[in-house]
């Protein structure tokens, strides 16, 4: 005999509904707890601006196109700056790259005198921007490029030498090795414990500089280097002034005010290209440049730590 179920009423119904609501709430909180680690705000992409408004020998669309590709693959937002530097433009970036800038008068005349690539107003603007939290990567290769940005570099405590740093054995490669001491340890840029590790990099004929303020050396020239202070690019004569380059730098970083500065006296190590013979690889794809890609990424990550101050 089938009897109809008696439906709860009054206090019994209230207790059953309360129990269901409690179980539903616990289930929701359990699901929310499981999902919450994946629901996080996306970190902003570090913004990189590569100067192209100062007759730069290396630009995002030209010789630094491989650098742009590497940075984008690594999570950076990269743009080219074809307009004059202004406060408004600098507010659109976290890292500014200036590579081998020249004054118009020296574009087709790589000989003394070398005119500054940046006006006094631009130099003052960039200095103040870094002091207030900007990050600058300044690259000045061999003569004539150091002379074009010497005034700007001096504002950050770097003295650039406008010449060529050349090994006594001109056929030897420019290798900087952590074990040898020519590549110096840096907690965020060089070291075997980094991911990926950086213990050995290569450069490709640059110049040199020294620091007049507290800085972190990265690339140190050895006793077999000489600094040739030429008056015309690639012209080495018996009467060309020269001095020992031992202990001078090709790469260093420093904090400046609230900002960061990295200076390098060699440009090809930041890209991939062919030598004038059309066959020899220089930069990322050179056989000796084993860790160059990782080194470059670590340099940009160190510079872009200032993103946290946005």
Which terms would index this structure?
7-stranded mixed sheet, Rossmann fold, 310 residues, 16 strands, disordered N terminus, alpha/beta, 3-stranded antiparallel sheet
Largest sheet: 7 strands, mixed
Helix content: 10-25%
Output the CATH topology: Rossmann fold
Count of folded domains = 1
Structural class: alpha/beta
Could you give the distance between the termini?
77 Å
Tally of contiguous helical segments: 6
- Please provide the count of β strands: 16
Overall description:
The model is unreliable at 1-6, 21-33 and 35-39 (pLDDT under 50). With 310 residues, the chain is α/β, with parallel strands linked by helices. It has helices at residues 10-35, 65-73, 87-90, 120-131, 145-154, 292-303; strands at 47-51, 77-81, 95-99, 135-139, 158-161, 164-167, 174-177, 200-203, 208-211, 216-220, 225-228, 242-244, 249-256, 259-264, 272-274, 281-283. The chain is globular. The termini are far apart. It is 24% helix and 23% strand. A hairpin with a 2-residue loop joins strand 13 and strand 14 (259-264).
